[in-house]
Amino acid sequence: MHDERPGTETDVLVVGGGPAGATASALLARQGYDVTLLERSRFPRYHIGESLLPSLLPLLDLLGAREVIERHGFVRKTGAYYDWGGQEWALRFGGLGRSTEYSFQVVRSEFDQALLDHARAQGARVHEEVTARTVDFRDGRASAAAWTSTDGTGGVIAFRHLVDASGRAGLLSARQLRSRRFHDAFRNVATWGYWHGAARIGAAPDGAICLFSLPDDGWFWAIPLHDGTLSVGLVTDKESFTAARQTLGGTEAVYADRLRQCPALARLLAGADLVTPLRVESDYSYAADRFCGPGWFLAGDAACFLDPLLSTGVHLAMYSGLLAAASIAAAQRQDVTEAEATAFYQGAYRHAYERLLILVGAFYDIHQGRDAHFRRAQTLSHRDQRPLRLDESFLHIVTGVEDLHDAQDDTVARLFAALREPIAGHRKVGLGGHGASLMTPWPTAPDQAVAGLRLVLEPHLGLQRQAD
Fold it and tell me: Given phi > 0 = left and psi -120 to 50 = alpha, else beta, which region is 356?
């Protein structure tokens, strides 16, 4: 543990010790770069985002951290169960390929601690309870950061590259550059707590996340955790939540009322006890205008965050940590120019985010329902759609959708229609088998190149020009 003062210079400064920062730090430190990580909290610290996607398994393998997570005892998640809009179905991960047959339901304080400890073990200099305050730009390039510690000390650290993984706090995007834009859709409120003694749904896959829609204004998640509790969260739009809280007399009353409107979940909790206070978060769907620039990369929630429906938060965090590490390493070795590396990062991360944005929007659209105000409120507005390069993001990954650039007026509708059609071997429900893991392939093949570059994993992590 590095509790001494941070140094005055480093190759890479990482701000934030969550999954994005820990991933980038571990991957760069194990390649021999001098990495300094500043984390404002003392781990372990509480965090929401407990249901992980199978797409994280290859990332954990690349980090060399899979065995650590396997040994910890987290609930093994083999699928998902939906009780949604009058339909019930189970999604089992076994059909996705042998390496991605499961994922984990995690207590995030323990999962994040394990990843941060792994980054430390790879050689990253980790400083907890140290907050990065401001970033200094010299000639338009990020070059140094001022920091303060809880012991009252402070200083400035110079760097060649910055990975801003500061989460919702958004050191650059929310505070300094002010480049964060909230979506018109997915402006929701989540309210959740932890129950002990809950029953389980027999039809659900082992360790599955269970999702339950409400008739008009939202949905519930139910996530089994290895400490014996069930995380149960209500997601609803801001307008409905505010009105219901005023009418019913508070957050607890809204939560209880909506549980009564969800008989299947209420039955699971009939013999259970709510053992924690309720927590509330709001306005958590946004994206920065740019994800990188000269000397800096935004990773994880510092760059963007989506509706929690498809559990994409930790996936985007760790995936962006991988992309940032590869981009920095390639630029440092001069395998590619820094301009090429940032163009790759911007394109690859933006494409992953846009794919998942459309996937979430499609799910709500498919299950909109004539009288469901909540599902209507999750419709992507024209303002949301304008910045999306839909032809680039989807032309080659959604089967049967052709010439999107010739149909700009109804591109989203055509994509949603295509996503309704099932992938071979999947039931025609939900998204027809178009899971989040299938929609975010790593750009490692020549035909998946972004900005003329592709991701390479061997003999070392980096980028390679498409023609090489």
Answer: alpha
- Write the DSSP symbol of residue 410: G
pLDDT tens readout for residues 101-145: 899 999 999 999 999 999 999 999 999 999 999 999 999 999 999
Asked if residue 436 lies in contact with residue 80, where contact means CB atoms within 8 angstroms, the answer is: no
List Cα–Cα distances, 428 to 83, 89, 364, 431, in angstroms: 15, 10, 16, 8
CA distance 49 to 44: 15
Locate 133 and state its tokens: 């305050």
- Could you tell me the sign of the dihedral formed by the alpha carbons of 111, 90, 394, 220, in that order? negative
> What is the greatest pairwise CA distance in the chain?
64
From CA 319, how far away is CA 436, in angstroms rounded? 13
Helix 338-366 and helix 313-332, axial crossing angle in degrees, nearest 10: 170
3-state secondary structure 154-213: EEEEEEEEEEECCHHHCHHHHHHCCCEEECCCCCEEEEEEEEECCCCCCCCCCCCEEEEE
User: Is the distance from CB of 37 to CB of 125 less than 8 angstroms?
Assistant: yes
How far, in Å, CA of 163 to CA of 12, rounded? 7
Q: Could you read off the pLDDT of 266-302 as tens digits, one per residue?
A: 999 999 999 999 999 986 789 999 999 999 999 999 9
Going from the C-alpha of 165 to that of each of 78, 177, 243, 311, the distances in angstroms are 29, 15, 34, 19
